[in-house]
Amino acid sequence: MDITWGASASHELAWGGIIAIYLFLAGVAGGAFLTSALTELFSKNRQLKVIRAGAYIAPVAILIGLAMLVVDLGKPLSFWKLILYVNFHSVMSIGTFIISIFTALAVVYAYLVWMAAAAEKKIQITVAGQEMAAAKATGIQSWRKPVAVIGSLFALGTATYTGFLLSAVTTNGLWHVSFLGIEGIPFLPILFLVSAISAGLAATLIGAVDCSDLTAYKKADIILLAIEIILLAVLYTSVKAAFFSGGMATLFWLGVVVVGLLLPLVLAIYGVTKHKNLVLPVCGMVVVGGLCLRYFVVYSGQLFR
Amino acid sequence: MAKQYVMVIQASKCIGCQACTVACKFQNEVPEGQYRTKSPAIGPTGTYPNVKLYFEKEACQMCKNAPCVGVCPTKASYYNEDGVVLVDANKCIGCKYCMTACPYDARFLNEETGAADKCSFCYEHRVSQGEKPACVSTCVGGALVFGDVNDPNSEVKKLLDKHKAEVRKPEFGTHPNVYYIYEGVK
Ligand code: SF4
Ligand code: SF4
Ligand code: SF4
Question: What value of ipTM does the predicted structure carry?
């Protein structure tokens, strides 16, 4: 690098792909947990496969995400200082506690769901052990609904936090943009929340793909995709055009818009009731689109701030 | 009255010798390839007879309203009692949040410590002992002036009163303590 003549050395970005994946996985975890918990709490024909898939995806996704966050630190072994030293002005500091509680609840919830599933299997195999297993299960299973309720709140918190983390950077034109110009309502938490639920739902449906009736979920998916398209249109008109330029143009238009939103929306509307074999491609594209969105926002915000 | 340390940079006196760049690396044992300060050339711009070229000493701008301090999750980035923004390398976990927040690209992750690093106004080793920062002491052209702006007799106060000084990127509302005087830049 020529420091004297300032030949602007390619400045390394502070946050790269690892952070983008972390934000994505935290969103998927939150969305999957919500899908599972809301099905558990409100669905009449409780689709067990959906409940299980979402319950298992959430802790796995958030734990992998946290591991990525830790390895990306300059001092990975000192991550515990995040809990020791608290700064209430820092979104990251507050988020640490939200995510920690969510992770714990997601693990507990998955364990309860797994226990019930295991007990059910046992009942089918040995009639003798039936009573015992059932009795044992009911005691601890009474925790499941409260865990689902509180966990849902923290899932919402986790998904929105990934947006607040970026929107708190007041010096960044893309990250800090406000919703429709309304001072005090940051845009990214809203976009990331919708995208998180959509990607988490899609991941859950992939896990429950052989389920008999997913119509309700497919409809929810269509609504979420439509909202996301509107939100991205709002974003496009709210920030300077440079953020969608250069290498970021392909990622945004192809990855986020076409693969992540338009194609799955068209396919989903086409196959909402019939065409069961469309679930996999539609949901796969939604998940990929969610990842592209995080990459786009993390990189473009730093490249063209 | 509390101290308010500032640095005033007179661009017309800087000859771009990079003595400050080197002095800073000596004083602060900055790893190879990394810099707390550098003074790249700006320009040349314009056409004869109005060609302009100057050097701009870049480093932490010691913001009074510092975005890096606000976002830091561990309070590793902080204001000390004299209004100097510092990093406690021991508390820092290297999350790089401050680096995304600083609009001046003043920070880097120190390759050796893994902690965020930046200009410290040489506070610990020099200024707190009554000395000037290493870059200021070494400046060949006399372009760098350092001192307490709350002291009416200080050189910085007199310079700022007499000349039109600017701060970089005022639109971010960071209120830097590093001032630039471009008078006489040709
Ligand atoms: S220049 Fe950057 S690192 Fe220095 S105080 Fe301002 S925001 Fe912080
Ligand atoms: S890298 Fe260190 S100084 Fe910067 S925000 Fe993170 S903990 Fe604070
Ligand atoms: S004040 Fe000290 S740390 Fe800052 S640029 Fe000068 S020599 Fe480097």
Answer: 0.93
Share of chain A above pLDDT 70, in %: 90
Helices (H), B80-119: 97-101
DSSP bridge partners of B8: B145, B179
Domain that residue B164 falls in = 5-181
Q: Dig out the tokens for A117 from the structure.
A: 């599933």
Inside any domain, residue B186? no
**What does the alpha-carbon distance between residue A130 and residue A264 come to, in Å, rounded to a whole number?**
44
Please report, for the domain that includes residue B149, its CATH number. Answer: 3.30.70.20
Backbone dihedral region of A2: left (phi > 0), alpha (psi from -120 to 50 degrees) or beta?
A: beta
Bigger pLDDT: A124 vs A180: A180
Domains and CATH numbers, chain A: 17-303 (1.20.1630.10)
Q: Look over chain A and give the mean of its residue pLDDT values, rounded to a whole number.
A: 90
Q: Which ranges of B29-177 would DSSP assign to H, the alpha helix? A: 67-71, 97-101, 134-138, 155-162
Q: Tell me, what's the pLDDT at B108?
A: 96
Asked if A18 and A71 touch (Cβ cutoff 8 Å), the reply is yes
Mutate which: B15, B93, B110, B113, vs A, most A CBs within 10 A: B93
Name B125's bridge partners: none
Name the residue with the closest Cα to ligand 1, atom 8. Answer: B68
Interface contact A168, partner B, CB < 8 A: yes
Are B95 and A92 an interchain contact pair (Cβ–Cβ within 8 Å)? yes
Confidence class for position A305, pLDDT limits 50, 70, 90? confident
SS3 A48: helix
CA-to-CA dists, residue A280 to A95, A204, A247, A268, A277, angstroms = 33, 11, 29, 11, 6
Structure pTM? 0.93
> Tell me: the pLDDT tens digits for A69-111?
999 999 999 999 999 999 999 999 999 999 999 999 999 999 9
Domain count across chain B: 1
DSSP B27-62: HHTPPTT--S-B--EEEEES-TTS-EEEE--BS---
Question: Higher model confidence: residue B67 or residue A135?
Answer: B67
Is A170 in the B-facing interface, judged by CB distances under 8 Å?
yes
Rounded to the nearest angstrom, the distance between the alpha carbon of A14 and the centre of ligand 3 is 22
Dist. CA B184–CA B186, nearest whole Å:
6
Q: How far is the CA of A78 from the centre of ligand 1 (A)?
A: 23
Could you tell me if residue B148 is left (phi over 0), alpha (psi between -120 and 50 degrees) or otherwise beta? beta
